[in-house]
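QA checklist item 7 of 12: single-chain prediction sanity check.
[x] sequence parsed
[x] length recorded as 599
[x] structure emitted
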Amino acid sequence: MIKFAIMSHSKLFFIFFIFLVNSIHSQEKNINDSIFFSNVLKKTSNFQHFKNFKKASYYFSQKEWDSTLIYTQKQLSIKKQDIQVKNYCYLFRGIALNKKEVYEEAINQLRLVSNNFKFSDRIKFYLGILNLKLEKYNKALSYFKQLESIPKNKLLYLNYNDIFDNIGLCYLFLKKYEKSEIYLKKSYQNETDTIKLIRKYVNIANLYYTRYQDDIAIPYFEKAYKLSKDLSISHRKIEHIKSDEKRREVFKYRETTSENMSVVEENRKDFKKALVYRKEMLKWSDSLNNQNRIYEVAKKEKEFAVKEKQKEVDFLQVENELKETQRNNVIYIASVLLLLLFVSIYFYREKVKRNKIIAEQKENLDALNNTKDKLFSIVSHDLRSSVNALKTSNTVLLDNLQSKNINALEGLLQKNSAIVNGAYGLLDNLLNWALLQTNQGYFHIESLRLFIIVEHVAYNYKPLLFEKELSFENSISKKALIYADQESLKIILRNLLDNAIKFSKPNGALKVYSEEAGDFWNLIVEDTGLGMSEATRQELLKDSALLHKKEHEEVLGTGLGLSLVKSMIHKNHGKFNIKSELGKGTKMIVSLPKTQPNG
């Protein structure tokens, strides 16, 4: 709380600590100004249709600061926001954080308030006080000087005496004593609040006392002492003060001004007077302690009443135990019967559960067998189609070779190359899929630079991209580091690029880029090709091994490559997603972890 007392060591430079605490007290009094608070709450009543803001206003009025912070944050999280509601939210948050002594964040919130806010003067005052608490004296001074320049008829809910007082304190901390003296003297002119006047007298007394001007300082200490005495002429008068906080404030002012006078008299070597003041200080100190004792007595009385009530409860408990003994026999028999019933039900349910598991396993096994049969059927069909196409093409190739038709030969060779590459890719995918199914694949998770891997894989696809007249762009961030198995990542990329090229129209575009997503880097392969329907997209994202029906019958494919991609992404602790619209292209999104996965 407040501490104005001078240290007993003669001329000791204690002034900065004293004034800092004094400043904090001054600020707290202004924050609790009822006129300002009532006006703020009156203005916020116009925005009660905002549910979260309404709750924030209520908790602010009740001084429940944690709840105020929660509901203002909820209100601010809404995208479309009324500018005035935002201003009030930042004001509430600044005051609440100040009460919780989180001063830096309180400043950050108050600085977000618009300059044209109705209570902008009060905001500047808060910012000045908070910077004063953080010992940023030049910053605090800049805010108070802004307020000083405002005409009196436009200064809302503030008075110049408080502003002058804080400017004087700033100059004092900055050791600009002449300027401090000017403002501290101005601060108590026409002051009607007795408590503020006491504080301001002590402020200027400390200024002079620090500068060894005892003859000027001591009269101010005496004035503060006399005023504090008027606050509490008798105990009866104090008893009429309803607020406990106000009562303690009066006791504390009386105690500290007495202590100041005691130290002053000690320094003047008048130990008799010093002793009188010291005894008076102790009396008021005891008055503060007495309030704590009263609380302790009330607590003891409450504990005694609880013990007496406990005795009654114990007696009734013994009586109830006798009755419970009679009931226990009946309950015991009923419990045994119920236990037998529950045991019977348990074993029956376990039997049903086991039968259900067996049935599910059988269904899964049948589904896997069907998948296997379908896979080999599709693979054999596609391989047969590729070999047959190659056989037919070679026949035509031989005919053109005899006729030395060079243009036709070049086209046929490119076609043969595409057929062979497709067959090779199918066999490669089949081999990797078989290794995965039999757990024979080797995985080594390590840190990889995603840009380099994409560059290596994409290089092999330049002829295909050129042949289909597709533009290609690698925009992967060079800072993107992921943890994955290098070989499986290349297989994933090859299959995604194969699909993107396969389903792209001539003169289309193909892009590979990255996005940060929390603990993952998203690798995105985007094409402007045929796209797919929502039903197909959902089907592809399922855990089933193969796609049952093709979206585009004219495009060859087994669905094995995408199944392999999903399996390998899972092995790399990643995630897979697809964004697509029919006729508008497709985005294949692979999320890979930034850090070493556990396990």
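[x] summary fact logged: Residues 442-593 form a domain with the Heat Shock Protein 90 fold (CATH 3.30.565.10).
[ ] second reviewer sign-off
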